[in-house]
Amino acid sequence: MTELIKIERNTNGEQLVSGRELHINLQSAERFSKWFSRMLDYGFEEGVDYTPYQKVHPQNNQEITDYVIKLDMAKEICMLQKSEQGKRMRRYFIECERKLRELNTPKTQSEVILLLAQQNVEIEKKQIEQQKQLNAIENKLKIVEAKQVNSPQDFYSVVAWCNLINKKVELSEAKALGKKCTGLSKELECQTGETPDPRFGKVKTYHVDVLKEVMGGQ
Description:
By secondary structure, this protein is an alpha+beta fold. The chain has helices at 19-25, 32-40, 71-81, 84-104, 109-149, 158-164, 171-187, 208-215; strands at 8-9, 15-18, 50-56, 63-70, 155-156, 193-197, 201-207. The protein folds into 2 domains: 8-104, no CATH class; 148-215, no CATH class.
C-alpha cells in the first residue's frame, strides 16, 4: 500500500497525523488556518481530538502552528470535505487501522501465551496496588477505632467494643448489633453518643452496660 500521509503512534498506541499534512493531502484551496478553524466548528476538542504545537517552517524558518490529530478526527474531517480525495484519504486511514490491528493480534500459540502472561502481570500489578490501598484504609480505621475506644464516659462504638473484647465482626453484623444497642438504650433510657468515622462520617456510641448486655465482654 502506497503511503499517502505519514502516520505516527503515541505512547498509548494511538495513530496520529499532522493537521497541515492532512490539509495538503486533501488538496484544499483554503488557507490552512481558516480551514482548520472551520473544521473545529464541528465540535472537535483540544486535548481530546487534537493537540497544537509549534514547529519551524522548512522554507522561511519561521515558527508556525501545527496540530497533532488523532485518526478518528482525521477520518471525520475527510468525510466533511465531500470530495473524492476526502473519500480516498478516509479509506486509506481505515486500511491503516486494519493493518495495525492485524499486527497487534497474536497469530501463534506462543504469541497468545506471551500476551496472556503480559495481561496476568498487569492484573497482578493492579491487585498489589489495590491491596496497598486497602491496607492504608485499614490502618486509618484502626487509628480511628483506637480513638473510639478512648471515648469519654465509657461510651464505645460497636466496632470499637468488638476490638476491645477481641471479637471479630462483619459490617452487616455490626449494623445489626448497632440496632440492638440503639433499641436497648431507648428501653433503658440510656444516653447514646457519636464519634467520627472515615467510612460513614459519624457512628453511634453506646454505654458499656448496653454493649455488655448485647455483645458480652468484660
